[in-house]
Amino acid sequence: MIRILIVDDHAIVRQGLRRILDEAKGMTVGGEAANGIEALKLMRTERWDIVLLDISMPEKNGIDTLKQIMDRDKEAKVLILSMYPEDQYAVRLMKAGASGYLTKETAPEKLVDAIRSVHSGNKHISPNLAELLLHECGATAGKLPHEILSDREYQVLRLLGSGKKVSEVAETLTLSVKTVSTYRAHILEKMKLRNNAEITYYVMQNELKE
Hints:
There is one protein chain. By secondary structure, this protein is of the alpha/beta class. The chain folds into two domains: 2-138, Response regulator (Rossmann fold, 3-Layer(aba) Sandwich); 145-205, Arc Repressor Mutant, subunit A, CATH 1.10.10. The chain is built from ten helices and five strands; from the N terminus they run E-H-E-H-E-H-E-H-E-H-H-H-H-H-H. It has helices spanning 11-23, 36-45, 62-72, 86-95, 108-119, 127-138, 151-161, 166-173, 177-191, 196-205, and strands at 2-7, 27-33, 50-53, 78-82, 100-103. It has a five-stranded parallel β-sheet with strand order 2-1-3-4-5, sandwiched between helices. Strand 3 (50-53), helix 3 and strand 4 (78-82) form a beta-alpha-beta unit.
């Protein structure tokens, strides 16, 4: 029996996933968490075969949660299920240790197949993601400006580009205002931008809005 932990901040999504997975042969949802903090607590006390992890959550987001999971257990099997398309986050998360990446538009049967594949020790990689990963491995030059940012800088970029103030970004990511301001300065320097208006324009032009 494949024991699954669902991590998503929307109760209706968790309920829908539970229904799908509990009906699948050989699977059971053993627990739910509404954010990364709850997920990490459950992982300290119980064993899970698969963690089904969302990205955008309050308290602690999926990116930070994944990194902490992998720091504790390199063998953990974490399947990302996100509202964001593959080209926005998938490569970063696969490099951080995720076993696969699916969007929430994925058909239920494909989700079930992906869980079985990951549980068997495979990576779940779509043809599009395989192409993105190949491009990432081969392209050290010619990257878009946002592709040279660290994961945290990328998060800050998207939030600032969505119209959030530095203080709001700090609250969202549970960071100090000073820390976010430092990330902002790094972003401006690396991307050769001058101010928040140019950050917003870049984010909108490249469809990176949070």
